[in-house]
Write a structure and sequence with these properties.
With 327 residues, this protein is α/β, with parallel strands linked by helices. It is built from 14 helices and 11 strands. Helices cover 46% and strands 16% of the residues. Strand 3 and strand 4 form a beta hairpin. Helix 9 crosses helix 11, helix 11 crosses helix 12 and helix 12 packs antiparallel against helix 14. It is globular, with a radius of gyration of 21 Å. The model has no long low-confidence stretch (mean pLDDT 86).
């Protein structure tokens, strides 16, 4: 493990502060959402944004692409979208030398990919994202091609209108680093949103970081130390989500069918490291683990019928599990 200097920690914290300030020029409120998206990005993870239409999810992702000076592509997922539409395909090219196949890259070949309404595409197309999200590569016609770096998939889904949708399978949900819920704005925030969206938009965002700088900051975050006691706390929290485990919490036994995968543990640790850096600290605290637990676990825990009957949601269960795990 490489040692981290106080200057690197200070630069990391200042950079994120600048990014949040620039995003705030275009996005009103949603500070928690912005912070969680940035934690996922600097952890090298993909994000699933869930919220009703019109809350600015697409605007947020587009603004992040501008502030980070990254190539951005938006894909509107629909039931007739085919895998080749997003990965690219081999097309026939003719010239003086004759005919030949040439690969035409799809919209996945960007730095930030917005998969809008991902649950409207068929499982066949959804699965085409798995390799891109997990490996950073795309395989077409037996040839594997590397995607640009850094690479992030930010997907959105609508929690209300489920007609004509294809819910994401557990394996694909687990590939998302965070699941972030985008809440409805307050009255004051709604006034400010109307004020900036019903007049000519003259605000401009400044580019704060480029791709190479993001990769460097990701490496800095990887090398932040975590005390054995804090790591043990995070892992006990993960084990506490498994209803069949002897150390399972009461809430998990009562309300969960399945607990978190090992990816949930990896997410907790890495996200906590990035949060500690953003807060200007050299090491991970117990509070960092608790703060990132909800976006890290809410898509990795599966409720049973009793939870639905008692009107218990997954965040309620996470709260109870956190409350039952001692530091």
């Amino acid at each position: 493990m490489n040692s981290i200097t106080s200057e690197e920690i200070r630069d990391f914290s200042k950079t994120v502060e600048k990014i949040e300030g620039e995003i705030g020029k275009k996005i009103i409120g949603q500070k928690k959402v912005i912070r969680e998206v940035l934690i996922a990005i600097f952890s090298g993870g993909n994000v699933l944004l869930e919220g009703v239409p019109g809350l600015g999810k697409t605007r947020l992702v587009r603004t992040i692409g501008e502030v980070m000076d990254l190539k951005f592509r938006r894909i509107q997922f629909t039931p007739d979208l085919m895998p080749a539409d997003i990965t690219g395909t081999n097309i026939v090219m003719k010239d003086e030398r004759g005919s030949r196949f040439e690969f035409q890259p799809g919209p996945l070949f960007s730095n930030i990919v917005l998969a809008d309404e991902i649950n409207r595409a068929t499982p066949k197309t959804q699965s085409a994202l798995l390799e891109a999200m997990g490996e950073g590569t795309v395989t077409v016609g037996g040839v594997t091609r590397k995607l640009p770096s850094p690479y992030f998939v930010l997907a959105t889904q609508n929690p209300l209108e489920q007609e004509g949708t294809y819910p994401l399978p557990e394996a694909q949900m687990d590939r998302f680093f965070f699941k972030i819920e985008v809440d409805y704005p307050s009255l004051d925030e709604l006034h400010r949103i109307i004020d900036i969206t019903t007049v000519e938009d003259t605000s401009k965002t400044e580019k704060i970081v480029e791709g190479d700088e993001i990769l460097k900051l990701q490496k800095v975050a990887m090398n932040i130390p975590i005390a054995k006691a804090v790591q043990d706390y995070a892992l006990r929290l993960i084990l506490g989500t498994h209803p069949e485990n002897p150390n399972a919490s009461e809430a998990a036994v009562k309300y969960l069918r399945y607990g978190s995968s090992p990816r949930g543990a990896q997410t907790l640790i890495q996200a906590a490291k990035v949060r500690a850096l953003i807060e200007g600290r050299y090491n991970v605290a117990f509070s960092d683990i608790r703060e990132v637990a909800h976006p890290a676990l809410r898509h990795r825990l599966f409720l049973n019928f009793e939870a639905m009957a008692d009107d218990i949601n997954v965040d309620n269960v996470i709260d109870e599990i956190i409350g039952s795990i001692e530091e």
